[in-house]
Amino acid sequence: MKCLIHAWLLGHVMTTCSGFTNPAGRNDKFEFTSTSLRSIPSSFDTLTSGLASITRIPRGVTVSPDVISSVGPAAQFLPKIRKLYDIENSIECRTVRERITEYDLVIEQVIPACPNSRAVAQNPITVPTLVAEFDGKEQTLTGVDNILNFLDDKFSTIKKEGTEKAVSDGEVEGDTVKMIFDKASDLIANLPGVLRLGRGSSVCSAASMDFDVPRPAMPLILYSYEGNQFCRLVREVLTELDIIYVCKSTGKESPRRKELAEITGGSSQCPYLVDPNTNIKMAESKDIITYLYKTYARFTSPSETLQSASSVTTLLSPLFKVLAPLQAGSFTENELVFKGNLAEAKAKALLDNCGVKFKEISLGKEWIPGLINDDLRRVALLSITGQSSLPHIFIGGTSIGGLFSGSPGLLPALEQGKLMEMIYDARVDVGRQ
Asked: In angstroms, rounded to a whole number, what is the distance separating the alpha carbons of residues 351 and 419?
């Protein structure tokens, strides 16, 4: 069965762009910082996130029976957790968040504090850092040990009752066993970071400060608990998109689950997102993440699967170079063309999301030997750029390649912060002519 895929040929990217403006104070070129592309989590991400949760069981799952409830009569005498400067894929921050789940706390602002985040750009800060208010006074605690000691002291009945047991001389032998156990625990504690390597550790290109990225005026609200694999996927993306949010702990045995059930009409499923800026309320991690990219990012990165498929196409490029002239026979046209498929759809969406105006020309059918409608144009593209793979993008008449590769390619240009600069330079060149 012949599979005919609607294909597009994208023409010159125009040198005007409603989404990109020259920032005030920058008379020449833009300045950029390097970030990493991220995509919507796949089934593989769900698997590794699940494994990460398993390695930390039972931590960060169930509310401690020794907690002083922040929703009970003692709540008015407990500290308020105003801010937590956090990196999702940090072992120290993870340890703090586990304790926050176990003490069933609300964090009024979880602030992403990756090295390339907006918070750190304004004021470099050590993570984790927790800001609490107690007896009308604000207290800032830095470092995992200081934060845990504070939380244990203020929210646990165990410490208040003085039940900590001193180690006696007769327990020296037990110390050796304890040391071995602690070493094994340290190893296990690092596994979630290894399993989720590359996620939740930096702000991605789609939310870079180099772009005019939509920012929520009011913090989003996330019902979550640390040990849930799907909650982790959402928190990773919140970190990568540099979004401040309210974290309402909703672990097992949390009375806050009743609050969540009232909002949802009966379900206490986590994660659950409330966006007061758009009045959106939703469950399901995939839906939440898709919404976050659509609302608070400049573009949604294609999946790793599509990028892998693109690599296969690159391997076949020598074959395409041989077949294109054979199919075309001879040609006289010298028209710059682009074509697409699934990759084209992603390229077009990226350009649209970035506010880039472009011209598109359709070849008709997917390029499969013998099925292309316009072989002459493909040969013209091959003779001009040295490659016939598609889609292909030009800015101001200069080829930058395809979606994933080229000089440097559309996604690499976005990732490296070069796309805005290239468009701006092309616009300046046109103005001089």
From this structure: 10
